[in-house]
Amino acid sequence: MHIHAIDHVEFYVGDADEVAASLRSEYGFGLLGWLREDPARYSVLVGQGDIRVLLTAARDPRHPAAAYVAEHGDGLATIALSTEEPAAALSEALDRGAVVRDGRMTGFGDVAHVFVRPGALLEAVEPAPEPDRAALSLLDAIDHVAACVGAGELDRTVAYYERVLGFKQIFEEHIEVGGQAMNSKVVQSISKEVTLTLLEPDTTAEPGQIDDFLAAHHGAGVQHLAFRTDDIATAVRTLGERGVGFLSTPGSYYDALEERFEHTAVPIPELRELNVLVDQDNEGELFQIFTQTTHPRRTIFFEVIERLGALTFGSANIKALYQAVERERTGANTEGATL
Questions:
Q1: pLDDT of the chain along its 339 residues, tens only?
Q2: N or C: which end of the chain has fewer CB within 10 A?
């Protein structure tokens, strides 16, 4: 099968209008329309650049969104994959051993996949009466989806995506921070447009934030969604002014940057001001920053990332992210923290 990209992601939520309003006011998403044809659900579609986010609330307690929200709270429930022949893709996935329920291919935890023809969602929605003039053009595409899976599930999940969808493993990392540790593997579609970062707690170490996510979310699920931008400095400043909170990074990280890199496309003083992380690989640079979670269970959050040729995932920054989340988790998000 040929999978082009992530067509859209669907969140199951308690109040679709409320979440849509937050994404519009804080992140600059534009209102694109509504799905109203199914009386069991109410869905709002918002977008920015090539990003499409469908927000679905159950109107009937028998709709899957009702059970999902009751179990996990608001969360990302569907990753829709674009392909020219959705029915053929689903049939091939079944032949390769996919587990399918109600037309949705299971992925990890309660997160599922659907195959859709490019543009089909926009054709299906009742469009907004006029373009959303308040929409911004800061975020361009979904760079990757990061998910936490239970201990012992990482290799099995990677193998499932390799077998069923033909994805390839492109990255592997073991992270240790203090007494905590986790394992990470990244799988990617042949088109290189669908990337999943999978995280698993290391049970030989002390329980940490991955364990906390799994406990609060009640199982495997999406930890963060990464939005790609072509101007991270402007994006971070603008989103911050609109009320988005970002994780902070201690000054020692930027002190060390001056020794690691002779030059960065965004000057180090500006990175320090904005709390943006930077890494380099053989192909170029990437810049990234992570938002504070506003979820009542303190689970899902977002990432903003800019790639200047870089193909990797900020390997040198994974430890910095882990520590930043840990400081927020423990209420010790202070300048005195060290890397």
A1: 899 999 999 999 999 999 999 999 999 999 999 998 899 999 999 999 999 999 999 999 999 999 999 999 999 999 999 999 999 999 999 999 999 988 899 999 999 999 999 999 999 999 999 989 889 999 999 999 999 999 999 999 999 999 999 999 999 989 887 788 899 999 999 999 999 999 999 999 999 889 999 999 999 999 999 999 999 999 999 999 999 999 998 888 888 888 888 899 999 999 999 999 999 888 899 999 999 999 999 999 999 999 999 887 766 676 666 666 666 666 644 333 222
A2: C
Domain map (residue ranges) of the chain:
6-127, 141-330
Whether the CB-CB separation of 74 and 9 falls below 8 Å is answered with no
> What pTM was estimated for this model as a whole?
0.92
Q: Do domains 6-127 and 141-330 have the same CATH topology?
A: yes
Identify the sign of the CA torsion 118, 119, 123, 128: positive
- For the domain covering 6-127, report its CATH number: 3.10.180.10
